[in-house]
Write a structure and sequence with these properties.
alpha+beta, 43% strand
Amino acid sequence: MKKTMPSLTALVFSTQTSLAEIGRYVVTVAHDLYQEAARQGLMPVAPLQWIYTGADGKPDTVFTLEIALPVMGKLSKPSVFDFRKLPSFTAFVATHSGPWEHLYETYDRLIDEVKAAGQQMSGVCREQYLLIDTELPAQNITEVQVGIVQ
């Protein structure tokens, strides 16, 4: 399904990484973002998002990873995270239920949909974490968004 997500203001962590190294950011950065939001008096208003720019599915390709917590409010003091507006984003979207190790199946399906619709991928993908359960990964619910060129 094609969908346009509105722009939103977020606390953002940004780094260069690869799929082989990405595990170091799971949970830890989310914890830090929520802690910073509380310290700043900001209210989280949407699910945590991981934004991949330049990832190609290969384990050693280096790409830009942004982990964003959408918030409402203004910074009350300096922050170690970026505070900025993320642009609106048009993508083909599907919900993935289950372990993140199987996210590639949802990506494969969405990429096939993009191609079948004659659209061009933008090189940016997002994941919104609707439910995170590290103890029972089968219960994870993730919205996968494959960006398209407008």
